[in-house]
Amino acid sequence: MSGREGGKKKPLKAPKKQNKELDDDELAFKQKQKEEQKALDAMKAKAAGKGPLGGTGIKKSGKK
Fold first, then answer.
1. Extended strands (E) in 1-64
2. Most distant CA pair in the chain: distance in Å?
3. Those residues with Cβ within 8 angstroms of residue 22's Cβ, 6 or more apart along the chain or in another chain
4. What does the pLDDT read at residue 15?
5. 0.90 surpassed by pTM
6. What is the dihedral of CA 44, 49, 52, 56, to 10 degrees?
7. HSE value, Cβ hemisphere, 13 Å, CA-based, for 19
């Protein structure tokens, strides 16, 4: 046992991804995904401005 091996070992570096050429179908799909994400973000922002959906809050019973 040598004292130099203590601690965490560094993980091996992952190989770099190969840049592949995108065809028209893939480009159209990515563009569609971006538009859907923008629409989803817009809906989230719109919904964040409102209060709770139910509006009733915690219901209390008549008993004390």
1. none
2. 73
3. 30
4. 81
5. no
6. -150
7. 0
